[in-house]
Amino acid sequence: MANLILILGDQLSHRLSALEGADKDNDLVVMAEVHSEASYTNHHRKKLVFIFSAMRHFADALEEDGWRVHYQRYHPDNPAQSIEQVIAELAREYQPERVITTECGEWRLHEQISRSHKTLGIPVEIRPDTRFVCNIDEFDRWAEGRKQLRMEFFYREMRKKTGLLMTSEGQPEGGKWNFDTDNRKKWAGKPPAPAPFREEPDAITTEVIELVNEYFSEYFGTTEGFHYAVTAEQALVALAHFIDFALPCFGDYQDAMSDNEDWLFHSILSPYLNTGLLDPMEVCEEAVRAWHAGRAPLNAVEGFVRQIIGWREFVRGIYWLLMPGYARENRLGNSRELPWFYWTGDTKMRCMHKAIDATARNAYAHHIQRLMVTGNFALLAGVKPEAICDWYLAVYIDAFDWVELPNTLGMVMHADGGYLGSKPYAASGKYIQRMSDHCQNCHYRVQDATGDRACPFNSLYWHFIDRHREDFANNPRMTMMYRNWDKQKSERREALRARADWVLANIETL
Ligand code: FAD
Ligand code: SF4
């Protein structure tokens, strides 16, 4: 045999760099469901089903395409419990010339694979991941020498590089790079939100569901109602579904939340993009075609393209630029454990309950729920970045370290000093009231900041501002908040502090 080609669970693409130039007759593709990857966090059971089933479908597709594939199915008693052990066993058996793989999405595994040539005694070739618009070296060059790394400027470079939504004169379509100001509407039930794309489980998925129910019954969430796509073909249908039914309103209601609708006008494409079932450029080009055909407005299409070639690429660049130290950042010095209701949804705070309940059912919550509800609460309450990062990594179907960590540690917790935002996304209950209908169904009163029934977000917001004066008072984007805080009568400030202290001391009862 010539080479072992290692393909990981988030590398399910026929165009993967590890497969380039490979020899179908002599090389062996290796894929493995291993205990160490399935159990390093309390993964949502739907996430496990999705990844195992998509891996099995992809292995079958490779075999149909003429590849030789060694596939290890999950069993808790498998002798090889980690990727390294699987490769070591096969290397002993087949004596390959080398191992070829594509760089992986997690520092922990990257370290293991980079060092594995020492124990294997054969070369391990790690190829760049070409499934991104901007590779790691290119991002490093862009970042070099810049005082501040801002997504907006990076995004403009990516627009120019890809030509997406650019005129033939090299200008942004519509005369503006960013139409975000048009994208902040509250949703009041109209137009109706489309039903999400559904793919019923086939025989492979059904078998995986049984496996996950048997061996991962203690893990978060449920396998019930699993409906995600598990092949590239199905993911393309999910893309078409989004373009037809949700994209036209994606921009308008991008920041909206609803008490009754889990998905609103979001694409629900992140699981497919992150595992290689969909290609980011193919997704963006499809959205731009819809705009050219008059099927979706520019604010929606620009907003969508920005999330993918802007935010998605930017957070990946930040991750690889700053790891491994990045994962240990805690610039706000937080020390609180994660409240238990993050795992149960058992809280009287309606917005939190709704976001966590949807997460447990679907392994999905949309961006604003992640950022402005569960994230905002963790920021205001001063939860340890490590604890909240572990939660996000576990509970979402699309969670992989390279994308989850910068979003949580950086964007939500501001624990990195501000790479993902020039100020923290801290907000009181007023924001949640403005963007949703949760407050009208809540035990707490959003209009109150003190008193037994006062919305916990309100006093916590001021507590956050007060306790982080040294961190933020000189930030020009925060001056107004400090002015508002200082303007309040001292008795009022004391009452707010007292209410926040009570909320923090009794956090598990909220
Ligand atoms: P849409 O709203 O339809 O957006 C379209 C696409 O844009 C997404 O599919 C995604 O690929 C991309 N995108 C949008 N925002 C971001 C972003 N901030 N960073 C990276 N890509 C983005 N996204 C993940 O893919 N995996 C994660 O583990 C993850 N963890 C997050 C944790 C927190 C605390 C926050 C605030 C955000 C996180 N995000 C993560 C980003 C974003 O919330 C999800 O990508 C999005 O909700 C996925 O749903 P969607 O496909 O319907 O997205
Ligand atoms: Fe959330 Fe406060 Fe509104 Fe209740 S009142 S839903 S806790 S923002």
Molecular structure report:
This protein has helices at 35-39, 45-64, 83-94, 107-120, 136-143, 151-162, 203-215, 232-245, 247-250, 270-275, 280-292, 298-322, 341-344, 350-362, 367-381, 385-395, 401-412, 429-435, 456-467, 469-472, 479-487, 490-505; strands spanning 3-6, 28-32, 69-72, 98-102, 124-127. The chain is mostly helical and 510 residues long. It folds into 3 domains: 3-127, Rossmann fold (3-Layer(aba) Sandwich), CATH 3.40.50.620; 136-194 and 246-322, Serine Threonine Protein Phosphatase 5, Tetratricopeptide repeat (Alpha Horseshoe), CATH 1.25.40.80; 341-509, DNA Cyclobutane Dipyrimidine Photolyase, subunit A, domain 3 (Orthogonal Bundle). The protein has a 5-stranded parallel β-sheet, with helices on both faces. β4 (98-102), α4 (107-120) and β5 form a beta-alpha-beta unit. The mean pLDDT is 96. Bound molecules: flavin-adenine dinucleotide (FAD) and iron/sulfur cluster (SF4). Residues 266-270, 273-274, 304, 307-308, 311-312, 315, 366-367, 370-371, 375, 392, 396, 398-399, 403-404, 407-408, 411-412 line the site of flavin-adenine dinucleotide (FAD). This is Deoxyribodipyrimidine photolyase-related protein. Keywords: Lyase. One of its GO terms (molecular function) is lyase activity.
Topology:
Elements: E1 3-6, E2 28-32, H1 35-39, H2 45-64, E3 69-72, H3 83-94, E4 98-102, H4 107-120, E5 124-127, H5 136-143, H6 151-162, H7 203-215, H8 232-245, H9 247-250, H10 270-275, H11 280-292, H12 298-322, H13 341-344, H14 350-362, H15 367-381, H16 385-395, H17 401-412, H18 429-435, H19 456-467, H20 469-472, H21 479-487, H22 490-505
Parallel strand pairs: 1-2, 1-4, 2-3, 4-5
Helix pairs in contact: 2-7, 3-4, 6-12, 11-12, 12-17, 14-15, 15-19, 16-17, 19-22
The structure holds flavin-adenine dinucleotide and iron/sulfur cluster (SF4).
Flavin-adenine dinucleotide binds next to helix 10, helix 12, helix 15 and helix 17.
